[in-house]
Amino acid sequence: MRILDTKHFAVQGFKAWGISSGIKKNEKKDLAIIYSEREAAVAGVFTRNRVKAAPVLWDAARVKSGKVRAIVANSGCANACTGKRGLTDARATAETAARELGIKTDTVLVASTGVIGEFLPMAKVQTGISTAVGLLTNTGWEQAAEAIMTTDMFPKMTVVQEEIGGKTITVAGIAKGSGMIHPNMATMLCFIMTDAALSSPLLRKALLASTERSFNAITVDGDTSTNDTILCLANGAAGGRKIGPSGKEFKKFQSCLDAVAVSLARQVVRDGEGATKFVEIEVRNAKNPGEAKRAAETVARSSLVKTALFGEDANWGRIIAALGYAGIDMDETKTDIYIGKAKLVDRGLGAGKAAEREAALALKQREIQISIDLHKGKAKAAVWTCDLSCEYVKINAAYRS
Asked: For residue 140, how far is the Cα from the chain centroid?
């Protein structure tokens, strides 16, 4: 597998672009279109929040067909909690794109991110779609990535290539996400494109596995959004036979998809609202994989742990307390905790001032690893998170102003 510079971002048979259509007040880009020149297999993963935005409902119905041609995504307005009008606007967005692109309405997916409870300015959206369609290019991915940003500080992009079945296939993705980030599935929009050939059921199998290893393993603030959407399109433009469900070819594709998803997920955490630290929480020797994941997630989303990380305070008591309410089989007298290479806790007891000083130095770094050994089994899991800073409060206190 080759990880490419995103300056060389292109996927055969796909075009993209992003523009400012006037949805946002600050004239930043706010409307993106992704277009496949041929019919593409599709898979989607959506929020588990019971309150679902209109575009989520539209897409969840459309992906069942297994075939799509385009995605229209906007930022600045979530089109969530907008009732019948929201659903009408989602359909109208798809109809406008279909008309401009000369394709069927049911092959257009839509996605939105931004403020909940506001209606899309449809006149601006429809004019913007017409403009963006005229600008579509196979190198327009950075513009599209910028157009789906909200509080993001930078566009998130990843592209990899691999030789499969004698053909060079590309898997590439763009994402947005900074706040309201939590597993199930993480608050974000993510669009992954590949020129490999797969059936929709197989693509869904691969996407679900990649999502569990990436977007379901991150948390910034513990909030799950109404608009979370991951869409993966495979148009087969690289040529060659379809990838089957077994053998080396599917394993290679899965590795590529995993690499793209993990990269984008980690970029989301690095861009966590107000974040100053990127943190990996690793749990080892848990009773089973589910308990390992639950333990890591509980520590990762603890506000007390996250504020200690921001303060560069090696307060291991907050970590062991979080483990104690995680609902897992743990015994503090068997638990070890490390920050970086410093062993802070040895079988439930503090390892002393020297260990705390070494841990404090590790906490001054931009990237931090916290390792927890439960000594209860052989399972392990990792979750990525960030610290909780004063800036996070400021950003979200003024989000609508």
From this structure: 20
Contact at 8 Å (CB) between 17 and 136? yes
* Bridge partners for 15 per DSSP: 35
Query: Residue 358's pLDDT is what?
Result: 95
CATH number at residue 32: 3.60.70.12
- Peptide linkage before 185 cis (omega within 30 of 0): yes
Q: Among 187, 194, 224, 229, which one carries the catalytic annotation? A: 187
Q: CA-CA distance, 168 to 88, in Å (whole number)?
A: 41
* Statement: the pTM of the whole predicted model exceeds 0.85: yes
Write the CB contacts of 51 (distance below 8 Å, at least 6 apart in sequence). 80, 81, 226
pLDDT at 69 over 90: yes
Question: Could you list the residue range(s) of the whole structural domain that residue 121 is in?
Answer: 2-270
The pLDDT of residue 306 is 92
The DSSP code for 348 is T
Whether 276 is catalytic:
no
Do 226 and 282 lie in one domain? The reply is no
Phi, psi of 24, deg, nearest 5: -85, 150
Same domain, 261 and 199: yes
CATH number of domain containing 316: 3.10.20.340
